């Protein structure tokens, strides 16, 4: 399993960032590869999203996230924090999942997607793309 984390750490969210970084060290010891890329341009992000099944937006606060819309357009299953302003875009268990901003809730969402039966993951990915396509008909997907 490879986990790609893209984005810059913000000074006002430094404690939150450090918690994620500490957890990644634990995962790296369990043969899970966690990569922190920092800020990247849209072409790099699109390349990463093209090979991604699950997109997580763990923001403490977020407006309308272009990265979320891009990941949905690229048919990623999305997990977003309940505390972000965009959690109303995600219809739980239809086009993504919403988690409470704590580790237990996030793990529950990840387990749901990773161990889902049948076409659950694929259906959620298709629904995510459909949502973006319907909301933004001029969106180039």
Short summary of the structure?
With 141 residues, this protein is an alpha/beta fold.
Helix content estimate: 40-55%
Give the CA-based shape.
Answer: globular
Mean pLDDT: 79
Sequence of secondary-structure elements: EHEHEHEEHH
Main sheet properties: 3 strands, parallel
Radius of gyration: 15 Å
Low-confidence stretches: none
Strand order of the largest sheet: 3-4-5
Description:
This protein has 141 residues and is of the alpha/beta class. It is built from five helices and five strands; from the N terminus they run E-H-E-H-E-H-E-E-H-H. The strands form two sheets. It has a three-stranded parallel beta sheet, with helices on both faces. Strand 3, helix 3 and strand 4 form a beta-alpha-beta unit. The longest helix has 16 residues.
List keywords for this structure.
single chain, 141 residues, alpha/beta, three-stranded parallel β-sheet, two-stranded parallel sheet, 5 helices, globular
List the helices and strands and how they pair.
Blueprint: E1 2-6, H1 14-29, E2 33-38, H2 42-49, E3 54-57, H3 66-73, E4 77-81, E5 96-99, H4 103-114, H5 120-135
Parallel strand pairs: 1-2, 3-4, 4-5
Helix pairs in contact: 3-5
